[in-house]
Amino acid sequence: MRLKGGALIVGALAVALTAAGCSETTSGGDSDTQKAKTQTGSISYEAADNTGPAKAVDGATRGGTITVLLNSDFEHLDPARNYVNLQQLTGSLIYRSLNGYQEDGSGKMTLVGDLATNPGTDVNKDCKVWEFKLRDGLKYEDGSAVTSKDVAYGLARSFAPELNEGSHYIQQWLYPGGTYNASYKGPYEGGQMPAGVETPDDKTIKFTFAAPHCDMPYAAALPATAPVPQAKDTKGQYDLRPFSSGPYKVKSYTRDNLLELERNPNWDANTDPIRTAYPDSMKFSFGLEQQQIAERLVADAPADQMSLTWGDTPPAVLPRTTAAGVAERVAKGPTQYVWYLGVNNQRIKDKKIREALYYGLDRDAALKAIGGTSAGTPASTLMSPTTAGFEKYDAYNAPATGDVNKVKEILGGTTPPPLVLAHSNTPLRTAQAEAIRASLVKAGFQVTLKAIEATSYYDEVGRKNTPFDLYLHGWGSDWPTGSTIIPPLYDSREIVDEGNQNLAYFAEPTVDAEIDRIKTLPAAEQDAAWMALDKKIMTDYLPEIPAYYDATHELFGSKVGNAFLSDAFGAIQVSKIYVKQ
């Protein structure tokens, strides 16, 4: 999962669980000295966990409006294209997936059925055939019934080359051995349903895989399994008006300005074990400077008391967040994401140049530009410390402030090529990019900055022909194993023309082969194998540069109740939030 600016970690079925994979948002955060930890959780088939309504929050009341103040608009809300943490949080209010996570702020996550009555049935007890039964009473915003065929159609859409920015686990499992949509390209180019997907009736959807995939319950929690009625499919325009199967529907959406959600009158709380939907409405206000947002939330004027932000607190405002009346209105701590200085291996093919960049990067300066220890800690591994089986190592032992002399030694007097560093055009990311540029220039590189609109950042760097050499990006696991980090980021067979997650554009057949081998291992052996592959990739190839392990520091108003960091998404959750009366 990407971080706007992300993820979830699990092993096999009844294993310990950490946080969700996606991109993280382009922002900055105070971890203080909190250590990242592997969160605990499980898949539950208990009727009490899988039956709605969701457990009530003590003291919560229904009503009011929660406003989320943001620097920039979302790239995508279409479930087929939704692979960024903040977008997934927002999307979960509008549409539901087969499965989802119950969280209470304690660090425990429980995977349960969302649209489905439970997390899925392993039909033959070999993880190759999975069946999901939909609940009774599921309705869209117009009162029509949600069907299994809508779930299948929603998944089918995600094969379309023009809608390829989302997660691809189920797609890859259905079409193994190469690019997931090489043969089946979705409903717009012929086939209505992917091979291996059946809907024998309106309440049943069955997935048949050639190989075992015991993590299917976790993959089924991603937006790719959200239902889309074919009659409501507007293709590329679906981003602007997803059809609601969740507690809220889109009231209005003015790009780069305001997204307003109002209650879906046909959502039945008795069918939903995850969301309480206490607020009458949710608003997402875009185009605000992050420092302005933080100043407003610290001041806590009446107009902002029911507001929160998913952006990190800028350095200039951080000292004021420890004051009485403010400190208790901060959600902070390490998340499951790693930020990388992405290196385009199509353009920078010499490993020595990448090694020089590794030593040239001043990680401390990059962090100080967005909040210092509140934003994270220097990284040396591809996987996050929250990942199951994680082992700390540093293959290059570079100081956090960089090592100019080592860069000179590696380059041996040769002049490195001029580089273009792309960054999101938000103030914090611009300041961070400048800090990175300055450290690399000090080390002898010639670096030019290129700002990209935050609303299209991952789209731009995710194009195979992207003209940029370097770019910052964040990634967290989709469930707590390396299987949701290493394959999405470094399997060359998943490089496509657009919508890439392998932003290093790293292609090494021996790594692809090792990915395949690890996937065949018993679940108990995979964690250590992914960690070993992490070390091998870093030592032998160094496709990109781990910059820092993410932390976040998010403010909320005094009338926002039950605000806590979601372990699944690394930002304040909205499924059980409420307005204090």
Structure description:
The protein is α/β, with parallel strands linked by helices. Helices cover 21% and strands 20% of the residues. It has helices spanning 47-50, 85-94, 148-157, 169-174, 216-219, 290-299, 351-360, 363-368, 404-411, 427-442, 457-461, 486-490, 509-519, 523-541; strands at residues 2-4, 21-25, 41-43, 65-69, 99-103, 109-113, 121-122, 129-133, 197-201, 204-208, 248-254, 258-263, 281-285, 307-309, 330-343, 376-378, 419-424, 447-452, 470-477, 545-555, 560-561, 578-579. Strands 1, 2, 15, 16, 17, 18, 19 and 20 form an 8-stranded mixed beta sheet that branches. Strands 11-12-13-4-14 form a 5-stranded mixed beta sheet, covered by helices on one side. Helix 7 runs antiparallel to helix 9 (404-411). The longest helix has 19 residues, at 523-541. The two termini are 35 Å apart.
What is this entry, summarized?
The protein has 581 residues and is of the alpha/beta class. The protein is 21% helix and 20% strand.
Offer a few descriptive terms.
single chain, 581 residues, alpha/beta, eight-stranded mixed sheet, five-stranded mixed sheet, 22 strands, 20% strand
